[in-house]
Design a protein that fits this description.
With 197 residues, the chain is mainly β. It folds into two domains: 2-32, no CATH class; 40-191, no CATH class. The chain is built from two helices and eleven strands, in the order E-E-H-E-E-E-E-E-E-H-E-E-E. It has helices at 43-49, 148-151, and strands at residues 2-8, 26-32, 57-62, 74-76, 91-95, 100-107, 125-131, 142-146, 159-165, 175-179, 189-190. A five-stranded mixed β-barrel has the order 6-7-8-10-9. Strands 4-3-5 form a three-stranded antiparallel beta sheet. The longest helix is centred in the N-terminal third of the chain and has 7 residues, at 43-49. It is globular and about 55 Å long. The protein binds zinc ion.
């Protein structure tokens, strides 16, 4: 692995998302790591977001209510192939276009295994709460990349819609999020026929 840092001056757009621009120092870190990554049991999620205009968002749920701390179905917005509470295999389902996606909170620092937003500095992420058409709320939040121009203005409860990469890379950033009713789609992304804006 090689690592190389380069100081970014204060005019770099990476500073724009910060509330502490005067004190902040950001370096561009060039890290070269090569390895083969398998998505294993959650590969179906990535297959879903790589279909461009035909893309779908998949989640998983576990209906083994008696095996859970509280007897209820658990819905994993970021899919898990097996349940975190009872270790049973989960069931896959599609988030329909009638699902609603809300901003819960925001972050410019995300560290998750395999997170792929680092190529798109600054990292501007909304944590998304999803509600199914039958008003069931999924039990976990998902981190969704949002455009920097939208980031500052987003507040808790704002509604978002997904758009998908036209040339998928098999990474989490193949899906990006825009405000509902948005007319500006980020460059390189397209709406899916399954999720009207
Ligand atoms: Zn379970």
């Amino acid at each position: 692995m090689t690592v190389e840092d380069r100081f970014l001056d204060a005019t770099d757009k990476s500073y724009k998302a910060s509330k502490h621009r005067d004190e902040l120092i950001i370096v561009e870190r060039n890290v070269n790591v090569k390895y083969k990554k398998s998505y294993g049991g959650i590969s179906r999620y990535f297959q879903g977001i790589m279909k461009k205009e035909d893309s779908v968002l998949l989640y998983t749920f576990c209906a083994n209510e008696s095996g859970h701390d509280e007897p209820r179905v658990i819905h994993y917005q970021v899919p898990r192939a097996d349940c975190a509470e009872c270790y049973c295999l989960t069931t896959w389902a599609k988030l329909s276009g009638q699902s609603k996606f809300f901003v819960e909170t925001k972050s410019t620092a995300v560290s998750l295994a395999g997170i792929s937003f680092m190529n798109d500095l600054p990292v501007t992420v909304a944590w998304i709460r999803t509600v199914l058409p039958d008003v069931t709320e999924l039990d976990t939040l998902a981190a969704g990349m949002v455009a920097i121009k939208d980031y500052d203005g987003l507040v808790k409860g704002d509604e978002l819609r997904p758009v998908f990469r036209q040339e998928p890379k098999a990474t989490a950033s193949d899906v990006m999020w825009v405000r509902k009713d948005s007319v500006e789609i980020p460059e390189g992304y397209t709406p899916s026929k399954h999720y009207a804006l």
